[in-house]
Amino acid sequence: MYSFWQRLTLSDISPNRWFEASYVHRWVGSLQAWRQQSWLLQRGDEIGAILTSLVFVISPFIPALGLSTELVGLLLAGVAAFWVLLTLADNRGNGITPIHVTLLAFWGVSAISTGLSPAKDLAFRGLNLVTLYLLLFVMLARLCRSSRIRDWLIGIYLHVSLVVSVYGVNQSLYGAKQLATWVDAESTLAKTTRVYSYLNNPNLLAAYLLPAIAFSVAACFIWRGRLPKILAGLMVVVNTYCLMVTYCRGAWVGALMGIVVAAALVYYWLRPTLSQFWKSWALPMALGAILVVGGVAVLAVPTLRDRTLSIFSGSKDSSNNVRIEVWKAVAKMINDRPLWGIGPGDRVFKKMYPVYQTSPRFSALSAYSIFLETIVEIGYVGFVCLLWMLAVIFNCGLQGLAKLRQTRDPQAFWLIAAIAAMVATVGQGTTDTEWYRPQIQTLWWLVVGIIASFYPASETSDWQEKALMESSDS
Hints:
By secondary structure, the chain is an all-alpha fold. It has one domain. The chain is built from 20 helices and no strands. Helix 18 runs antiparallel to helix 19. It comes from Chamaesiphon polymorphus CCALA 037. Residues 235-387 form the O-antigen ligase-related domain.
């Protein structure tokens, strides 16, 4: 079984073999001599970090400023072009992980789906966006191999998210105009303010805050000095409160999933230092405490209780009913094109959905589920590829954590936060598609890039066997 899992997650991948046989890879390093003579290219990673930082600084404010999301696309194109330049001037054989392989397969499936799409021109635009996001990932995976740049990028995101959260808290305290019908008009929460901050959508804000909460908790352990730790603690409180008052049920479920995963990973990290008693009881006690605190909060706060119970009210809740009706239409779309889908991108979905929608009242811009959205866009082949990609990302994270546990490197808390954020984002995405919005998609690739940056080099894979033996012994 372990051998099958190794093969599935590409744990034994040997990039060097591909490097030796690849014609494309021969171009890597072709401009290395120029880089050695260029003052700017010698600082290429720092320049790349500044370019990528602009994406995270600007993207959350685009809705409030009334700007087009194409601005993010232009920034991504700039990042992609600079990555190509850096790669041509790079040392050969650096940075390839199993995650890169699965993403290349995902892009290939998307390209085939584009060629078979009934709306090829729109699908091609969707494929271009997929390409830009994947190139953002390879840039982030490269940059985050430097702990200094990794700390810089996470710090930029945390400070920007604090500004976003503070404005959300202000809306909660002083009220905010509801820009859409986000709460069932017949429910007890009809007059409740759902904050949306600069993102103009509470569900989008909630998805934006999930990684912020995870990384701000990690910052409490990594940032040095009293004032930075106080700032990190303040970020945890403000981000968490702001997430609560978005009243986004999917994000709450995702946050709970992320907390459980984080607790399990912290236990794994601490296990070698624990006494026998705590080895047996630390994790059950932590999970029990999570359930108790969550249960008490739901029972004690009426708005949280009503919003949570509405998850189980089926079609009686208007938000649930819209999703159910959209899922029915999406099922018909999938049934007509099950293998390769209709083509990537929301533009194709918007064109095709009206043919299948059950009623004019249930219009939709997406499938309200990243899994259903994947199937409808690039078919069951793409869905299998997505599941494979998620499994490989998670496994790479565990492998990186196993190596960090040997050296007791505190940078492991960034990795734990990234894995927890990944799980939380996927958890929310089960019943929503905010994952496809640029503000969240860029954060997703930041999270995945951080996980990839911790992946151990294949040449030193003997540590894996040692870590496995240690786990079985303990």
